[in-house]
Amino acid sequence: MINMKTLQDLTMLALSPEESTQLQGELEQKIAGMAEFAALDFPADAPLCVTPLTHTNMMRDDVVHTHTPREVLLQNAPAHNGEYYAAPAIQE
Fold it and tell me: Which residues have a Cβ under 8 Å from the Cβ of 23 and sit 6 or more positions away?
């Protein structure tokens, strides 16, 4: 059984009694599901896989494209120093 008071203290969550009851039920279901999965007997030599689907990388040729000049991009900036966008400091 999950101690919801401890969980709320550790996670600094402020849950109503209804939310706490609902979350406790959901968490206990998830833990039960993980316990069922952990109880499965897998062969030691079973190959590891993340997904049963096969994936292939989509490769494409590297192509050099022209880029928009910095001056043009900075024209629409509310503030800039000629080289970079200027933003107000959020921390001193």
Answer: 4, 15
Give me the torsion for CA of 45, 46, 49, 51, rounded to 10°: 180
Query: Which residues have C-beta within 8 Å of that of residue 28, sequence separation ≥ 6?
Result: 1, 2
pLDDT recorded at residue 50:
74
**10, 12, 13, 17 alpha-carbon torsion, rounded to 10°:** 70
What is the per-residue pLDDT across 29-44, written as a single tens digit (0 to 9) for each? 999 999 998 898 888 8
Q: How far is CA 65 from the centre of its chain?
A: 32
